[in-house]
Amino acid sequence: MNDDARPLAVFDLDGTLADTAHRQHFLEGAKRDWAGFFAAAAEDPPLAEGVRMVLASAEECRIVYLTGRPERCRRDTVRWLSRQGLPEGTLFMRRNDDRRPARRTKLDILRRLGRTGQVRILVDDDELVCDAAQVAGFAVVRARWADPSAALKDAQEREGRT
Q1: Upper half-sphere CA count for residue 13 (Cβ side, 13 Å)
Q2: With 60 as the cut, is the pLDDT of residue 62 above it?
Q3: Which whole-number Å values give the CA distances from 159 to 97, 128, 162, in the listed order?
Q4: Nearest to 155 by CA among 17, 37, 45
Q5: How confident is the model at residue 151 (pLDDT cuts 50, 70, 90)?
Q6: I want to staple 133 with a disulfide (CB 3.0 to 4.6 A). Which of 39, 95, 138, 151 is the partner?
Q7: Other CB atoms within 10 Å distance of the CB of residue 95
Q8: Rounded to whole angstroms, how far apart are CA atoms 73 and 70?
């Protein structure tokens, strides 16, 4: 049990804190290369606006990282967060076998978090995740500082991969 009563600030990774543009090519074409896509995540450049928001939020909030990346990417993801100098926080990842749309998996976790603490804000680039969170009563900041990827959006919704 965490005795820290500060509210939670919840941040997505891909497209919010991490720039995935350099690895989008793995999702284009008839056969998507998920192994290549996730392996390349370790080299994502940080997105300055997202980094500023998480650093500012850490002054008043406990940080939670909520990503659609599969659990098998945890080690690389934790290393990436550390290399960027981002604050420590709880990292929630998708089960390796979970193929539900991100809007469902993330909303389930947000609701769980909301039962044990106050979720002050969710910052995410996925419009469907943001819409679902707002409908459920969560405050949302839509991360619109990265170039959107049609391939990634389709993958998130149809294949439940990120």
Answers
A1: 29
A2: yes
A3: 11, 14, 8
A4: 37
A5: low
A6: 138
A7: 11
A8: 6
Q: What are the structure tokens assigned to 20, written together?
A: 């995935």
pLDDT at residue 150, as a whole number: 59
DSSP of the chain: -----SPEEEE--BTTTB--GGGGGGG-SSS--HHHHHHGGGGPPB-HHHHHHHHHHTTTSEEEEEEEEEGGGHHHHHHHHHHTTPPP-EEEEE-TT--S-HHHHHHHHHHHHHHHS-EEEEEES-HHHHHHHHHTT--EEE--SS---HHHHHIIIII---
Angle at CA of residue 138, ends 137 and 140, nearest 5°: 130
How many whole angstroms separate alpha carbon 143 and alpha carbon 124? 5
Task: Reply yes or no on whether the pLDDT at 1 is more than 50.
Answer: no
CA distances 162 to 31, 39, 62, 94, 145, Å, are 16, 13, 23, 8, 18
Tokens of 52: 């500023």
The label of the residue with tokens 């993330």 reads: 106
